[in-house]
Write a structure and sequence with these properties.
This protein is mostly helical. It has seven helices and no strands. The termini are far apart.
Length: about 220
């Protein structure tokens, strides 16, 4: 049996680091559980969940990012018949160069309405100019995402909260394919059911947060 002096002498010269509660919270985005199983308030700004629930609360920045991506996917799919990432598609199905500004080209609807809408979010020329400051701002995917997020916020959509019918109705004043509270378009155009739009939102959000993501009890982040 080794003596205490021998044990100390053979111990590693550089012991492993001791992580604080704050380090662990930053790494996992959660507050530690307390003896009652509910969880403590996080000591790291932005990592606490709702006051009613502190267990496994998702990092607020992560939640906001995933919500934003969920909205972007849901809007894009609603505008393009269920297809996502249609950044280079104009109204009517034609393609355009996303490294350049808005194509500003009116396309006939073949007996239906004509439109100059373009991109994943079907920006009208005036909307693109208003959101970016210049009609010639390149319609890159990143710029389109930023502009859509700006429009969402402008309509009063809270990206910290999960999708709900009231938020979709507000966003529907910007995108005619989204339903109002009566399930119809604000502009009398074809519209997607709220349940479909919400499913698209949740699919993308869960994809962003990972397959093992689960809501903390009471947090209701994803649904």
């Amino acid at each position: 049996m080794k003596t205490f002096k021998q044990f100390v002498a053979e111990a590693p010269k550089n012991p492993p680091p001791v992580y604080s509660a704050a380090d662990i919270q930053r790494a996992y985005g959660v507050a530690p559980r307390t003896s009652d199983g509910r969880g403590a308030r996080s000591t790291v700004a932005g990592l606490s969940g709702p006051p009613s629930n502190r267990v496994g609360s998702v990092n607020r920045d992560m939640n906001r990012f995933a919500n934003t991506r969920g909205w972007q996917s849901a809007i894009g799919r609603a505008e393009h018949g269920g297809k996502d990432d249609q950044y280079n598609v104009m109204y009517g199905g034609g393609k355009f160069d996303t490294t350049k500004g808005h194509p500003d080209t009116v396309v006939s609807g073949g007996g239906g309405p004509s439109s100059a809408a373009a991109g994943k979010y079907q920006f009208m020329p005036s909307t693109w100019k208003g959101a970016t400051g210049n009609l010639k701002t390149p319609m890159s995917p990143g710029n389109q995402d930023k502009a859509a997020t700006k429009l969402l916020r402008g309509r009063g959509v809270n990206l910290d909260r999960p999708m709900n019918p009231y938020a979709v109705s507000r966003a529907g004043k910007e995108w005619a394919s989204l339903p109002n509270l009566s399930g119809k378009s604000h502009y009398g155009q074809p519209v997607k059911p709220y349940s479909t739009v919400r499913n698209w939102f949740n699919q993308k959000k869960k994809q962003e947060l990972g397959l093992d993501y689960r809501d903390a009890p009471g947090a209701n982040y994803a649904r």
